[in-house]
Design goal:
The chain is an alpha/beta fold. The chain has helices at about 10-25, 35-45, 65-70, 115-125, 175-185; strands at about 25-30, 50-55, 75, 100-105, 125-130, 140, 145, 150-155, 170. α2 crosses α5 (about 175-185). About 45% of the residues are buried.
Length: about 190
């Protein structure tokens, strides 16, 4: 607040560098909310009108709204009874030629079964976007949430375990995705 740099600037760059290091990713990009993070991730992954995105019905509506915002269709896969996360055995039967991504929600800080989901995604050439809004610091087999799929999305909303009032972060190891998100969050402007 003292610096007067309320949008981007050196403190945001520091946050992004520290977040990427913490998650073990090459890139972390700050945005204004967890919803915006998912929206940016879908855009970067090339999801557009007419595409389908498989996700869970057991999540806050902010997981599905960005799918609708890019003009894609949400396709809901049931959850596992023990974890309440998306059930990998329910995903493959929902895949069509229009399926472009799976949004995996790591609910209540519990990572989903990423081994099985990753096998399915690889087999069908589908992108994995992690909704890790409730999973800051969660780990799956020694890797942090946000570094388990193609793109990871975090929320820094007031109810999360790390917060700044509002905010979101997208993580990725893909330079093209990172560049697309930088342009998207700045309305097409590029430094």
């Amino acid at each position: 607040l003292i610096s007067g740099m309320l949008a981007q600037g050196p403190k945001v760059a520091e946050l992004e560098a520290n977040w990427a290091e913490y998650c073990g990713t090459k890139y972390a990009l700050a945005v204004n909310s967890g919803t915006a993070a998912i929206h940016c991730a879908l855009f970067a992954a090339g999801v557009k009108e007419g595409d389908e995105v498989i996700t869970t019905p057991f999540s806050f509506i902010a997981t599905i709204n960005p799918i609708l915002m890019v003009g894609a269709k949400p396709v809901l896969a049931d959850i596992e009874e023990d974890s309440f996360n998306i059930d990998p055995s329910k995903i493959e039967g929902l895949i069509t030629k229009n399926t472009k991504a799976i949004i995996v929600v790591h609910l209540y800080g519990q990572p989903a079964n990423m081994d099985e989901i990753s096998k399915i995604a690889k087999k069908h050439n589908i992108k994995i976007i992690e909704d890790a809004c409730q999973a800051i610091g969660a780990e799956y087999k020694g890797k942090k949430a946000g570094n388990l799929g193609d793109l990871g999305c975090f929320s820094l909303y007031a109810t999360k375990n790390i917060m700044c009032g509002e905010g979101g972060i997208v993580t990725t190891n893909d330079e093209e995705y990172a560049n697309a998100i930088r342009r998207f969050r700045q309305h097409g402007m590029d430094s």
